[in-house]
Amino acid sequence: MNALAVAYTHYPLAPALLTIAVPAALSTLCIARTVSWLRARTAGDATPEYAVMRLRRTTAHAAILGLAYVIWSLSLDQFGGPFERAHIAVFIPVTVIGCIFCLMHVPQAALVLTGVVMVPYLLHYVSVGNAVFTAIAFNVALVTMVIIRVLFNSFAGFNSLVRSKDKLAAKQREAEQLSHENAIVALTDSLTGLPNRRFFFAKLDEVLRAKAVAQARFAVGVLDLDRFKPLNDTYGHAVGDRLLAQVGMRLQSAAADGVIVARLGGDEFGLLILEDVDRAAEIGQEFCDLLARPFKFDDIQVSLGASCGLSIYPEAGATAHALFDRSDYALYHVKAERRGGSGVFSLAHETTIRSERLLENALREADLEAELDVQFQPIVNIDAMTVVGVEALARWTSPKLGRVPTDSFIAMAERTGLIHSITLTLFRKALERALCLPGHIGLSFNLSANDITSPATIKSLLQAIHHGAIAPDRITFELTETALLRDVDAAERALRELRRLRVKVALDDFGTGYSSLSYLRRLAPDKIKIDKSFAADLDSISGRNIVTAIAGLCNNMGLECVFEGIESYDQLAKIHAFGYHFAQGYLFARPMLMPAFLTWLERDALRDLRLSARVPGGAGVRVRSV
Prior knowledge:
This protein is an alpha/beta fold and 626 residues long. It has helices at residues 2-10, 16-38, 48-75, 82-102, 107-128, 131-186, 197-214, 228-235, 237-254, 280-292, 320-337, 347-365, 368-371, 406-416, 419-434, 449-452, 455-467, 481-486, 488-499, 516-523, 541-557, 569-577, 594-602, 605-614, and strands at 218-225, 259-265, 268-273, 295-297, 300-302, 306-313, 342-344, 372-381, 386-398, 402-404, 442-447, 475-480, 504-510, 527-530, 560-563, 582-583. Helices cover 59% and strands 15% of the residues. The protein has an 8-stranded mixed beta barrel, surrounded by 4 helices. The chain has a 5-stranded mixed β-sheet with strand order 2-3-1-6-7, with helices on both faces.
């Protein structure tokens, strides 16, 4: 635009070549360069090599065009008067200064342009010999030096800005990477390397939304290790952690496409089966079989096993909570019926859940004082055939449900947190009923897993014993191994508290757990009660060997041993021959209320058993009712 203004003022005075042709050619080149610049790649598409090439081209074009313009403008200096010559003298430095500012971020091009233009300009006006033009040239040189200094300052600031932005971008990338790594860590179980509980439920929600839109099925599974806690207690937490790490490796290596495995916590793992849903039970069984293979650590070899419960969307539920809850329910039934297996939540389970909800509602609304009662079953010294104790057994008769099996309502009470009130009510009633018993007959009372691990319950039981009329040394608390294994440390503390009042402790259902022998020394019970399942297996060689070994163990450790489930003379004769001195079962009496028991005791029903035992052929007679 400046060149066209010069050409306009010199058009009447100079040849057309200099006022029309040359400016037109230079303007065309400038327009071409402008179009090329506008069509250049954006910064996001440019490679470093492409950028360097374009910068070098800009520098070269600046030199060429600058030289062309200065030659053209100085050629016009010979035409016209002082005003036209002054126009030329002003045009060149003003244009250069403008170009310097425009090329501020490309200082190489700005310096090349300044040198190419200003050197000929200064030489020309100094050589003219006119003092005014010499002064103008000197002033222009000074201004140009200041402008160059401003150029360097500006470029230094620009350079610092670019580097700061680079550093900021690097920090942002580092922060993003760290955030990504933290997100991975937050969603990963550090011990097994599997996704953790947070990831599992977030993924479950995500899959649920996607499958709902697609109207497709998928399965949710809960996999639980069967013997991890006893092994962890036996070998220590270090081995337990290594065992869990190996479990995680096996599960991860066996998870096919469309199957997501996560560790939910402890020895529990979650499954999401997104494909081949009809084979969900088989896939779960494959995982269980995989974990049933032995694990080896240095010189240790252990066997675990696992059980798996599954639910299928949408049949089992339409929410994440419902699906997981039903998977857990299916797992509960698998562990109760066939450990090491895999099962899918079914209509039968749904019916059971509804029944349990009715049971739960009835239990929550129950008048415990009026509806709960205690029955008593005798424990017999089979040497003298005399009663040495009674076991108090809980009974609940609901106005809505009628007589409810003990195992059912005790398990429900544990799940709902009502067991504390139920245990204390039953124990108080048992103490009251036991006041009628002769002084040589002891009272046995069962405690659940929740009771033995609850300091509040233990404290209340001790208070009831302290204020009761029964001597503490006549009371025996029966605990199953399952109850003790839930929290061995808490169980130990509770047993110490009970023994301070000289209360006895019996280990119930002995022989059905995984590690009864390992806990005998640590918990030091006063009595052992052999599970009734062994009474039905006395005819087999393995059964006889086991009960004989247990009798020898109890004899060596000085433990009183009661054999449960005796129903025939034949069983009675065999356990007596094996060295047992105490027994309990339907052969002697079924559980009964205290008035009936006192009547039974008064008529000496055991005398009939003593006489019957002497009758030839009497052995082996099964007593169906007493």
